[in-house]
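Hi V.,

Quick status before I head out on leave. The structure for the redesign project is tokenized and pasted below; the design run finished overnight.
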């Protein structure tokens, strides 16, 4: 009888441990501007279609962490800022989906590396997590309540593309290729 009680107790404890792992694994993410996951902002982020937002995020992550407001590379009408972000070496973003909502939190239908929250004409704010965002993800509900168009309009989420190389890595690669060219010419 005692052996049966111990078996039941172990199964019960195992069940509780599994539930606690499940609960911690799907913990809600509360994103804020300037937190550890913050990448930056695209001003004004219009038009806001799937392809446009993908190019905006990839333009934003091509800037150095901490870069001030400037023209987004390749996006002629948008400005980008990485002020408040220390993230570097980020992979390119590949569009995965969009949730049209004006309320937060949102429930993501899977695990995604980037989350973009669009606030009308106030801009698009982007967050990144190497471990991914999933489940209930809270984004700021209103960016600027005093400004027209400052409320949340939708959330777009992205998966991993390829890594964006650091500018120094590209310079070293270029020097290496020049060196190979000279070595080949001498041989």
């Amino acid at each position: 009888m005692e052996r049966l009680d111990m078996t039941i107790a172990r199964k019960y404890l195992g069940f509780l441990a599994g539930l606690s792992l499940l609960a911690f694994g799907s913990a809600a993410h509360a994103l804020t501007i300037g937190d550890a996951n913050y990448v930056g902002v695209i001003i004004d982020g219009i038009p806001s279609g799937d392809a446009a937002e993908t190019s905006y995020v990839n333009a934003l992550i091509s800037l150095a962490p901490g870069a001030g407001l400037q023209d987004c590379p390749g996006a002629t009408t948008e400005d980008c800022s990485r002020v408040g972000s220390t993230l570097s070496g980020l992979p390119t973003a590949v569009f995965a989906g969009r949730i049209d909502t004006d309320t937060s939190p949102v429930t993501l239908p899977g695990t995604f590396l980037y989350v973009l929250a669009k606030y009308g004409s106030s801009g698009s704010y982007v967050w990144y997590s190497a471990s991914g965002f999933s489940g209930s993800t809270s984004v700021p509900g209103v960016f600027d309540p005093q400004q027209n168009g400052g409320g949340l309009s939708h959330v777009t989420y992205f998966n991993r593309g390829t890594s964006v190389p650091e500018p120094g890595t590209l310079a070293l690669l270029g020097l290496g290729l020049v060196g190979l060219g000279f070595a080949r010419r001498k041989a």
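Above is the designed sequence. The CA atoms of residues 59 and 74 lie 7 Å apart.

G. will cover questions while I'm gone.

Best,
W.
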